[in-house]
Amino acid sequence: MGTAAAVWRFLVGPPVRVRQAAKQQITPIEGLPALSLDALTSVAYGPEAIIAVLAAAGVAALHLVLPISIAIVVLLAILVFSYRQVIEAYPGGGGTYAVCRANFPPSVGLLGAAALVVDYTLTVAVSIAAGVGSLTSAFPALGPATVPICLGILALVTTLNLRGLGDTARAFLLPTMLFIVGLLGVIAIGLIHPLAQDTPRQGQPLTSTQGLEAVGVLLVLKAFSAGCSALTGVEAIANGVPLFKQPRVVRAKRTELLLGSILGVMLLGLAVLAYRWHIGPRSGETVLSQVIALAIGRNWAYYVMSLTITVVLMLAANTSFGGLPVLTSRLAADNYLPHLFSLRDERQVFAVGIWVLAGLAGVLLVAVRGQTLRLIPLYAIGVFTAFTLSQSGLVKHWWKTRPARWRYRAVVNGAGAATTAVATVIFLVTKFTVGAWVVVLAVPALIALFVRTHAYYARCGRALGLHTIPDRPSAKPTMVVVPVTGVNRLTQHAVAEALSISSRVVAVHVVAEDAGQDTEHDRELDERWARWDPGVPLRILHTEYASVARPIVAFVDELREERDEQIVVLIPVALPHRLRYRFLHNHLEVALTAALKTRPDVIVASVPMPLRIP
Amino acid sequence: MGTAAAVWRFLVGPPVRVRQAAKQQITPIEGLPALSLDALTSVAYGPEAIIAVLAAAGVAALHLVLPISIAIVVLLAILVFSYRQVIEAYPGGGGTYAVCRANFPPSVGLLGAAALVVDYTLTVAVSIAAGVGSLTSAFPALGPATVPICLGILALVTTLNLRGLGDTARAFLLPTMLFIVGLLGVIAIGLIHPLAQDTPRQGQPLTSTQGLEAVGVLLVLKAFSAGCSALTGVEAIANGVPLFKQPRVVRAKRTELLLGSILGVMLLGLAVLAYRWHIGPRSGETVLSQVIALAIGRNWAYYVMSLTITVVLMLAANTSFGGLPVLTSRLAADNYLPHLFSLRDERQVFAVGIWVLAGLAGVLLVAVRGQTLRLIPLYAIGVFTAFTLSQSGLVKHWWKTRPARWRYRAVVNGAGAATTAVATVIFLVTKFTVGAWVVVLAVPALIALFVRTHAYYARCGRALGLHTIPDRPSAKPTMVVVPVTGVNRLTQHAVAEALSISSRVVAVHVVAEDAGQDTEHDRELDERWARWDPGVPLRILHTEYASVARPIVAFVDELREERDEQIVVLIPVALPHRLRYRFLHNHLEVALTAALKTRPDVIVASVPMPLRIP
Question: Which residue of A has its CA nearest to B472?
Fold first, then answer.
């Protein structure tokens, strides 16, 4: 094992056995860190996104943050009730892809899958960017290093996931609780503290209706759709129902409600504070950081809170790493992605999915230079498409199964689907030019990839006769060809193995025609071969070209034409025990293997001989 | 053949046969472009290097350019006479490495070889940098692109040499003649033209002795050693004697004299003009460009001359590409470098040597940002070390062979050796801190590489028993293991080839233990296998790990321990006709091949089955 391999092994750990199928049995409280981090941490960028849009229209528009936040919380309520129904309908874990596959034709399922791939990738990028934003707000000196810090955190999260996180997810409880309690505390202090009710930045309160005319519907819609990024992640609990302790459905529904309540309170509270303090976007400092600083001052508690937010956002990115590789492995199992995605590596994780997710998120982070707000326009479309699909699927599900109160259920999910469908269209229209086009291109591209991969594997399966019984295999006589460089132990080793395979062996030696000294060389080799007498003939091949592989390939082709035989080429290879000596040998192996690879009836094998050189 | 391969084939051309050994039969005039370009083009940077050193000490020192140039021309005369003797003594082509090998212990030969490697590399870098310097002097707008232009020219020269230049060297005659005639013409015009005798830059002639005291010996030595870069390349004719028409020695000696005369006249002429016109270093314009512009004006002739200089310097770089790969191939043939260096590629050129030379020159050009003057301190040491070694070798040669007038010959060569040895020491001392330390590190590093490689091949030869007759090879019974994924045509193909090799075949199938559904899967596969009835048993291997390779390796190891058999592992490989489909298959092949590579008694082979998918 080389040094690089040893370092890698140290980073990701030794191979692990298949883990016992014992599920993590979690309670609603534990469900928050395990399944709700993505949603809860949205408060770090949702209100910020609203304010950024409003501020672009002038200071007068900033007061709209309150009504828009209220609208978003209403949508949140609809989604929460809707997803509580999803939990009931698909207690086996109703991921969008699963709901779609059960209720719609495959193409809709693929749309859902593509939207989810985009969503997971953006969740990683947005969470890391927002986490680093929180860090650089607290420590402005780190600002210029934003992109390297983002990539460093991405590398850390990727490595942890390549290790396989296992049960360590429970360790997330502490920072999550610190985050929830801390932020609710900040909001409470902000609301009741008399000093905090001052308007520290701008002396003048906004005259409430002035300039409202100029604001316009489009601005409100834009701000609303930007703020909807705060709702991403509320579907995660419905995906993870099997993780809960029995009674699962009850506990999962309770967690969903808990998540909805906390998130709603946070969003409203932050909106009230932002409204009251006329908080606008500020270069180098996030809105959340401004609110915290105004509420509790820039003391040790502020720094603890900032670091907690960074950590919790890292953990939110981490949960996507739990989701996407599982999704892509299912797609691969259904032949929609290369089977590589369904291979577990030695740590039992779907390493290819992890690498692809890390690569995509890395590209995004570099492309937007780690700026959260530049990712927001791309973000919500995938999520809301998935929302719409899974809820429409449920409407169909209720229609088909007709359980008790199915009409009521269908109405709830239908309302959710309609609202999110409208929101999706709003995103598309208002954000197309500022980044949404990327998603509009990416989703069909992903679907095309899925469809083409599926079609390929189907054709391939027919070509391989996967569902038929092939003819019985029939043996042919075998001829072994051994290219040799002279009479030495390497040749001896290879010829011995060749004789084990077949009694019909021929050694070949290539001489590049040069300055007429061939005869001399030929005679000498012939003589040594005769003295050795290995029981195998030697054929000397002359060539006018420089390539040694070419005449051997020609010789093999001759043999193939002459008679119907199985031809085996055994290439002697010296294998020095130190890697750095390898390139001092065996220049023929690579060329010959490549040259013969396209001849399907020829077996090419290297015969390694270890060389312990003192 | 992929697109990249096709483009490459277009660039370097199709494979060529070994060329007829017919030598290029050249005359003294043709010898100038073929062997003397490096030396002749030195005038483009030699005088410049002197002036740069002098100017650093103040304008008053500039007049020293004349005496220093005279000293250099005297040294040139010694070298020319000395090398005429080398030609006589080694009419077979007396390269430094050859002379050293004949007269000194191997270590001295390696010192010569190392010095030559450094010399060839620097010749390429210096010539290209000076050529681009001439270009940017004529077209100052190109100045900022100096490094890209350098690398572009390097890529061009490299590609041409990978094609193999063959007889095209004769095409060099025209630009070479244009260069010689043009530059001699420029000097003649400069010397006789009354207008040109004005001092156009500075009205006041230098008062000749003023400030001389301050100049000091060290400055003179520095300027002298910098100017010696103009002497590089005078040894090339002695290396190429076999290229000349009979009587070779006479013609080669005549060429050497011709080269010496032209170079001497050019150096002296340029020195006189630079002295008369008080030419100093000028940012963005070479000294040679200044001289030409002052002599003939900035008209079409000036631009023709500038471009000619660029072209001729490119051709000078090209001649190094003729030298280094041949030298490294000889070193490889003597086991001093990896044998890769002695392999001809399909164009019959020593491609590895060409690539290494191009890489080293590229690094140098980037490191000095294409500035010729920054390469000069590194340049002359290698050349002058080689001068000293080959001439000392000749002294020993005369001493041993004692032909007519051997004392006289020994004195000439001894004087040359002594002068160049002194010059080498001067370079080392005066230029150590400004770049010569690179050479002082590189030469021993190269020698260490040579010595270690040689020692490795010696040990390796003993380990392989290269000079003994090995025991007769003995055959063993063979067992073939075929990893299969199921009953399909791929499996059929591989099992048929396995049965051709041996009647004892076992198919293995790996099942990763997962959720207890193994039994179902096992039973199904067993049943299909029984229905197929290929005459080969199927072994199902269960594993708790994710790796499929691991249980197969364990199975093979078991077989190896049980009985003394030759084990062959045949891996079925689907080979789609389109490259982009390849990664959709065959994930086992790479892992298994790597895992089994270290088991010397196991033959591992892929059995490719072409897959034509509509």
Answer: A534
